Amino acid sequence: MASNSINLEDVPSESLMTELLRRMKCATKPEKRLILIGPPGSGKGTQSPIIKDEYCLCHLATGDMLRSAVTAKTPLGIKAKEAMDKGELVSDDLVAGIIDEAMKKPSCQKGFILDGFPRTVGQAQKLDEMLEKKGVKIDKVLDFAIDDSILEERITARWIHPASGRTYHTKFAPPKVPGVDDVTGEPLTQRKDDTAEVLKSRLETFHRQTEPVIDYYSKKGIIAKLHAEKPPKEVTEEVKKVLS
Question: Which residue in the list 191, 200, 208, 241 is annotated as catalytic?
């Protein structure tokens, strides 16, 4: 038995039963391969765990996957690190390879949610070619459509408690005491990226690079436009309608 294998005898019965029930429920779910597209702050991070659990999909966030491939020193991770160390962008082929590796995991058996890829039409074509070889294709692309001015209000007023990841918003979900975490009383901070200047530059990149990707998938008839400015619960309902 491999040294990193888990001895099932040591796993609590409750955990085993929970996982068994989850797998039985998942066995009846249809396969789905989804892409989430939207600017920073559009709510992709809020909706993806809900979609993942509801449809038994794996969540492939390319930024996280690149970092774990680099940490795990996989052959592709080593190549990605070489590019990063030189200050170069990681090539589309490398990212597609890392996604291809991740899709082989048992948790991706029913499909996946891709988040952060494809960002360009070239990447979208590369992804289509890769999936075609497996005899599958993207089923739906969820477009988190939202006005830039709403994003500025959402993002620049966002504060986080770094230790727990709890997030607050000075207008929509303020802490009980300004600048202080409700649970621990520790000070809140803002992410370096959560400023109007950084947001402006990220939005310019998004509109320039990623909007053509939305056009690319529109021509295939698989885009579903969501009203991402609505409250999260309403967006969740929209997602369910689109995917049912």
Answer: 191
Tell me the pairing of strands 166-169 and 158-161: antiparallel
- Paired strand residues for 223: 141
Q: What is the pLDDT of residues 123-177, one digit of tens each?
A: 999 999 999 999 999 999 999 999 998 998 888 888 989 888 788 888 878 999 9
The single residue listed with the structure tokens 């590796």 is: 101
Our answer to whether residue 44 is catalytic in this structure is: yes
Phi-psi region of 160 (alpha: psi -120 to 50; beta: other; left: phi over 0): beta
Q: Could you report the per-residue pLDDT of 195-214, keeping only the tens digit for each?
A: 888 889 889 989 998 889 99
- Catalytic residue at 191? yes
Q: Which of 29, 81, 166, 202 is catalytic?
A: 202
Domain covering 30-148+210-243 assigned CATH 3.40.50.980 in the classification: no
